[in-house]
Design a protein that fits this description.
By secondary structure, the chain is α+β, with helices and mostly antiparallel strands. It is built from four helices and 18 strands. This is S1-like domain-containing RNA-binding protein. InterPro entries: CvfB_fam, CvfB_S1_2nd, CvfB_S1_3rd, CvfB_S1_st, CvfB_WH, NA-bd_OB-fold, S1_domain, WH-like_DNA-bd_sf.
Length: 292
């Protein structure tokens, strides 16, 4: 067999000879040897030693070996971190070896706004093309379904977090920290999350097959808290006085706070109930800054 048949996989080889820059490895089953460069190992070997190595292709297309065994190999899936983004190529992913692996443009969403960014996590395996180059391949729904843990009715309304593993116009698919497979309909998000992005939401439905529907929109009380904090922050940035109150025009509120008049009134009402603000002649004041 050829070493080409083992690219992207782990193989046990024997040290045939040592060179100044590394070791040449082979075994009785393969037709050629491969270089284990000293930059690709933190161990020393002698002729005749057996060693498990991962085979990959370097930047010049040559087969190389490393004693760093990644959790992601051909046919084996795991999470890996995005290391960089190249708009004309795709995203590069760190699987733990000295060379980052490309997830090409054709395997990424059409819209660049939902491409992964540096630090995002994607669930991938490896594939080898006809030129023996290694590329990343995203997990499909059947792969996630094999790995998923079914949710039960007791999980309803629970908060969850996870990473987006697939995106489409109608919504996004999430694999959660608990192992649930979920769907986020476009109506249940304020903005479309990126592929690989970590998001937090809550379970709004459990299907018969154990998959879940997820909402990224905060619960009403959580949304209220966010809005009231935003209003109060703006008020304090103006030394405790702002020319907005519960009778302000809806368009003025939308322009300043990016919220509806109803949301603004609820936020203002919460602050008034807490004794933090009061209204007077078209203005809202902080009690803290206007105490006599």
């Amino acid at each position: 067999m050829s070493l080409n048949d083992y690219i992207g996989q782990v193989i046990n080889l024997t040290v045939e000879r040592e060179a100044a820059f590394g070791y040449f490895l082979s075994n009785d089953e393969v037709e050629e040897d491969v270089l284990l460069h000293k930059n690709d190992t933190d161990r020393e070997f002698a002729e005749g030693d057996e060693v498990d190595v991962f085979l990959y292709t370097d930047s010049q297309g040559r087969i190389a070996a490393t004693t760093t065994i990644p959790t992601i190999t051909v046919g084996r899936y795991d999470w890996a971190k995005v290391s960089s983004v190249k708009s004309d190529l795709g995203v590069f992913i760190n699987i733990g070896i000295n060379k980052d692996i490309l997830l090409g443009i054709d395997d990424l969403p059409v819209h660049r706004s939902v491409w992964p960014v540096e630090g995002d996590l994607v669930y991938i395996t490896l594939r080898v093309n006809r030129n023996n180059r290694i590329y990343a391949r995203l997990a499909t729904d059947p792969i996630i379904e094999e790995k998923m843990i079914p949710a039960t009715r007791t999980d309803f309304n629970k908060n969850i977090q996870g990473h987006i593993y697939r995106t489409a116009k109608v919504g996004s698919w999430i694999y959660t920290a608990e192992g649930f497979k979920g769907f986020i309909h476009e109506s249940q998000r304020k903005i479309e999350p990126r592929l690989g992005q970590k998001v937090e939401g809550r379970i709004i439905d459990i299907k018969e097959d154990g998959t879940i529907n997820v909402s990224l929109i905060p619960r009403k009380q959580e949304s209220l808290m966010d809005d009231s904090e935003r209003v109060y922050h703006y008020l304090m940035s103006r030394n405790g006085a702002m020319p907005y109150w519960d009778k302000s025009m809806p368009e003025d509120i939308e322009e300043r706070f990016q919220m509806s008049k109803g949301a603004f009134k609820r936020a203002l009402g919460k602050l008034m109930k807490e004794g933090k603000v009061y209204q007077e002649e078209g203005w809202t004041y902080s009690k803290e800054n206007n105490e006599e």
